[in-house]
# Entry
Amino acid sequence: MDIVFIESNLNEIIKELEKEVMVVLMDESLDKKQTNLRMKPLTSTKKILTNALESIKMVNTLAEESLEK
# Structure
């Protein structure tokens, strides 16, 4: 598995999410409730991607260890 490739693609997606977050935060027409409602899916998506990357790395490490045995 090409972990570096997967990680770089997920990092690109996370950067785009962060840009969207900045757009929401800079939108002064939104009140606190609207800002929070727009931020929640972005934050959740970032957590999901981060957890997925960690899981992929863990599975890859376990697979490499089992091949060494």
